Amino acid sequence: MKLYLAPMDAITHQAFRNLVGRFGGCDEYFNEMINASSLLNNGPWEKYYLFDGPEPEKLVWQLTDKSGEKMAAAARIVAQLNGLGVDLNMGCSAPQIAKTGAGIAWMLKPVEETAAMVRAVKSELVNAAKDGSREKRLSVKLRLGNEEYTEEKLHNFCQMLIDEGVQLLTLHARTQKQKHSRHSDWSAVQHLAEKFPQIPVVLNGDVKDAASFEAAKKAAPNAAGIMIATAAAQKPWIFRKLRIASGECKDDAGCFDALQLGLDFILDVERFQPKEFWKTRLQRFFAFYCLNFSFGHYFQSSMINASDNEDARKRLAEYFEKCPDDRMKRL
Ligand SMILES: Cc1cc2nc3c(=O)[nH]c(=O)nc-3n(C[C@H](O)[C@H](O)[C@H](O)COP(=O)(O)O)c2cc1C
């Protein structure tokens, strides 16, 4: 069973992926979504979205945009880079994305329009491989659909994607408006995987520990893999834990220094993110990470209020001085 790091905006940049990597990594790392229009405008920050570490051969570039032409032009750019594949974001239901025609809007537009976009992206990936380099895999991350979703509609949509050359599907099995309080429907992933055995179908949603990992595998035994977002943001070591739990790797009873991990992350943010992003990237990550500790909410609000990186370092050190038992953490 393959393990995938989910794309998370402002989180799954290289500094965060390095944290996942130091615990043994995962099978594929999805980059945070890249806005195709911004990439094409070649703004000052775009190069930071194109770092490919820590394991470039396992990196998947996720693209988002409302324009099919721009998606294809951006695919032409990332097709020249390292990486395993290109993923099309058809799952994001945040209103500021969906309302513009991006994310889940691609599931709801006239199907010919979406088919044309996928065809144009595919053709860029095929063209880029004409020099003999390996063609990048084309994948789509999607939801069930909007509130009028039926399995038949979803399957017809996925049939179109496959006909246009999509080679892997990740299903976050919630509808457009379903919030996280409602459990995602893993049986829909199983039905999709049964319907399309010719391609890998990946399950996403609500896998957060060994118990939910086992339950998800049981509910969708035909899924090719499991993609994890929120739980990985909180515990970048989750993939190692799941491998230990399923007997794929040895439990070395290892501990890590949670203060050092936080400090290393800040240093990597300084290396791999533009200065203008430092504050928000630290806030995003520490909002999840701090919840691992005894006084998680207090720690979280302290880190979110850090004025700059030096202050964040100071606040990290202060927390572990006050709570020394939290510092050496077992996986
Ligand atoms: C902070 C955050 C940022 C996200 N950004 C993206 C994104 O850039 N692209 C995307 O397809 N999904 C994005 N998602 C959705 C996740 O990839 C995933 O589908 C969702 O969180 C469900 O998985 P989980 O239960 O493991 O968290 C984001 C989720 C979170 C929490």
So, the CATH homologous superfamily of the largest domain? Aldolase class I
CATH architecture descriptor name of the largest domain: Alpha-Beta Barrel
The N- to C-terminal Cα distance equals 21 Å
The gross shape turns out to be globular
Please describe what this structure looks like.
- The protein is 46% helix and 16% strand.
- It is an alpha/beta fold and 331 residues long.
- It has two domains: 2-245, Alpha-Beta Barrel (TIM Barrel); 255-330, no CATH class.
- The strands form two sheets. Strands 1-2-4-5-6-7-8-9 form an eight-stranded parallel barrel, surrounded by five helices. Strands 10-11 form a two-stranded antiparallel sheet.
- Helix 15 runs antiparallel to helix 16.
- The longest helix is centred in the middle third of the chain and has 18 residues, at 111-128.
- The chain binds flavin mononucleotide.
- The site of flavin mononucleotide has 21 residues, from helix 11.
Task: For this entry, give a set of tags.
about 325 residues; two-stranded antiparallel ribbon; binds flavin mononucleotide; 11 strands; alpha/beta; single chain; TIM Barrel; 2 domains; eight-stranded parallel β-barrel
SSE blueprint and pairings:
Elements: E1 2-5, H1 14-22, E2 28-30, E3 34-35, H2 36-41, H3 46-49, E4 59-64, H4 68-78, E5 85-90, H5 95-98, H6 105-108, H7 111-128, E6 137-145, H8 151-163, E7 168-175, H9 186-195, E8 201-204, H10 210-219, E9 225-228, H11 230-234, H12 238-245, E10 255-257, H13 258-272, H14 278-289, H15 296-304, H16 309-322, E11 328-330
Helix pairs in contact: 1-13, 4-7, 13-14, 13-16, 14-15, 15-16
This protein binds flavin mononucleotide.
Residues 6-9, 11, 32-33, 62, 89, 91-92, 141, 172, 204-207, 228-231 line the site of flavin mononucleotide (FMN).
